[in-house]
């Protein structure tokens, strides 16, 4: 077949097409989407075939000649990428970049897809096989050709090209910074165009991922540049919000969160102007909006809790209204707690003092109506964060103001039996520090009927440190109905490159909660000598006592 093609390429190109198909079929033994062909037939010399028959089509100066053979050649590189040596792949990269200019939709789409797949290949040490340094000579041509390819008829919203743009940004990192001013203009122009009638979900997703990468890469090197991104993006975002483009709202909220989180501890006026609109009930009716909107409100609170308290105090009830709506939902109650925890952590205490009791009453109503494991875990983190932020006495007083002896009931019925279920390093740390404060900084725990809970609470805390997490879920929870969502709703699509760093509200103030417990117990025992050792010796089990001795030794303190 190849001989026939060689006699008259113009007439007999179909013979070569058939030959490549035959080689591909015979050589393929096992294939995955991630790696292409993973096992090849040893009887077929893939490298030799690449050099003798594939490379010539890729090197052809006229990218529009024999588009079927060009597409075959590109596909060959793509599916045998795990079998071909790196030097041949590096040889293919500039050729594939050239083929992005081909008029054939199949050809330039294959070229974009092949580049994207090559850029995700892993090399030694878990790094990318093709490095930014190796790509340096081709960066400008790669970016130019990818964006030009989006102008071809039929490829205006080509998801493979947009995915290749995203992957190029991710691979090249700092190397794209000089081109960002031009690229961001092209991306926002494209965003404005597709927002008029969103029809390609994958294309839109990769477009927003590319925007996030542009922001992250540039602002990592120079955080001040965040304002230039806001200038470019806010007009488009405003139009999307005003026109209520439902498919794009979750994405817009994520990108805005990313931008706001880059700022120092202040909120620009452009964000404050938008703040009241984010509390509109209609936005919270759509499930896809909830995770990104909560994150955005958390960013507002983190960067400007005091600003909101001073210049938007009338919006605090609206903020708590959002919390109330979320807490009532089994599907979204954890999001309500994220918001509540940020309010407790970042708002000035005096700005929410009048609302605190009502917050606790709402939580108890939900506990009584439908107590789920997820809710209990979030509730435990919240009350312990409250203890950390406002002190253990404030926690005891607010419980007992709702109902006498309520504090003891919560400790006995919820904290002691359930704290083992808390998961996550930060969440466990919050609970450990909060419980330590209750044990050692709350006089009522030593001098009232609450004293009988002191040792079980200490035992539960040592269990939180030392025992495996209790991930069991009660049998009856399997049958709890998650709320039915009426009709079709835009789902929430998490942007990988808009990721949020895990936040530790306690931070470096407490390095090791076990040492904190030992030091706090030592301080308590010096304040009331003899009491703590006698309480431990009478009712703490031997294993827990042994662990506690270890903490005391590590902290180089002892009980008196």
Automatic annotation (TrEMBL):
Q: Name one Pfam family in it.
A: CAS_CSE1
- Boundaries of each Exportin-2 C-terminal domain copy? 116-551
Q: What is this protein called?
A: Exportin-2 isoform 2
GO molecular function, one example? nuclear export signal receptor activity
Specify the species: Scophthalmus maximus
From what superkingdom does this record's organism come? Eukaryota
One annotated GO biological process:
protein import into nucleus
The regions listed as transmembrane in this protein's record are: none
